[in-house]
Specification:
- By secondary structure, this protein is mainly alpha-helical.
- It contains 6 helices and 2 strands.
- Strand 1 and strand 2 form a beta hairpin.
- The protein is globular, with a radius of gyration of 16 Å.
- The relative contact order is 0.18.
Length: about 180
Amino acid sequence: MTDAYELADAARTEPPLAVGELATLVGFLDYQRATFAWKCAGLSTEQLRARPLLPSPLSLLGLTRHLAEVERGWFRNVLNGEGHPGFWGGREAEFEADEADPDEAFTHWRAECEHARELVAAAPSLDVLGHYRAPDGEETEYSLRWILTHMIEEYARHNGHADLLREHLDGRTGE
């Protein structure tokens, strides 16, 4: 494990300006993913675990674990019906990062992002439907278009959190 995380995926590429709907959505999602990696790059394990906005339990490492779960949930489980359990045992546990291993979290996050990219690339259209079955048995369908849009929103919201966390950790702010 390194002392400061230099994340290769922190290099951001602006989303394309004049392309089709799929390339636009994928471009914005990848830009948001890279923005999150950028917010985490160069920090030590202790900084990634830190919760500088008490009483909030948020840390950059907890957000990394959460985003790995979100990627897995929406793409593997809803879109592709794979039914994989979570990595860390539920929503509260994924944010509990006081003893968490950054290498493990970033490895899972990167793998889930890559698998999601593969599933999106293989989809015949944005109209492909994924299915979610609630604990009460009710099933909801989500189009790939909806999932991609939701994931952009999810990352944008958490990138705002990451920006505040990073500013409190070392004063670095983003665009």
